[in-house]
# Entry
Amino acid sequence: MRDALIAAAFQLFLERGYEQTTVDDIVALAGVGRRSFFRYFPSKEDVVFPDHERCLADMTAFLAAGGEDDEPVQRICDAARMVLRMYAENPAFSVQRYRLTKKVPGLRAYELSVVWRYERALAEYLRGRFAGRPDGNLRADVIAAAVAAAHNNALRSWLRSDGQDDAEAAVDHALGYVQSAFGTSRAPSAPLADKQPEDVVVVVSRRGAPLWRVVQEIESTLGRG
# Structure
């Protein structure tokens, strides 16, 4: 029934326009009652964005399941990719929704509120990870905003291509900027046993000796003479 309501809504939105379509029109085409519609969707706007509540819940659970060993910026980048996968599950629907949202100011405002909720979820996770650090909350908010902006830039680029471009590659490229700017991962240092000892060379030279003579003595000591 949920899928039938979504299909009916978008059929009418395309035929009549979003503003000209009512909930009564949608339920009439779907063959159900108004109570059935509101059982699934609190408002007409929600039928345009039917999967965001589930995705937001999944993202929040993913972040909560992270451990102290997880690099925090990498973790929220992985969380953002969950939104991409939600869009990529049905490219045709996602492109259709993108085109509709561009035409309806109310839907654009609703979409911005959804993006803000994703960004807040990322920021709350980072605030917990950065607790006690100088400017921890500021750093959390800035990084969360950067991840949301990078993800949305790549996502919209994919939608403008009618879902034909490689969405995953575009988002990976965009999030790479954030990770290079804010990430703290570093390649592990080599164990002490694997490090090569450094040579220390001491050269004794006569005070007042010309520089070329000192250089010659150093080269000779190093076996380069």
In short: Residues 1-47 form a domain with the Arc Repressor Mutant, subunit A fold (CATH 1.10.10.60). The chain has a mean pLDDT of 85. The CA atoms of residues 157 and 194 lie 46 Å apart.
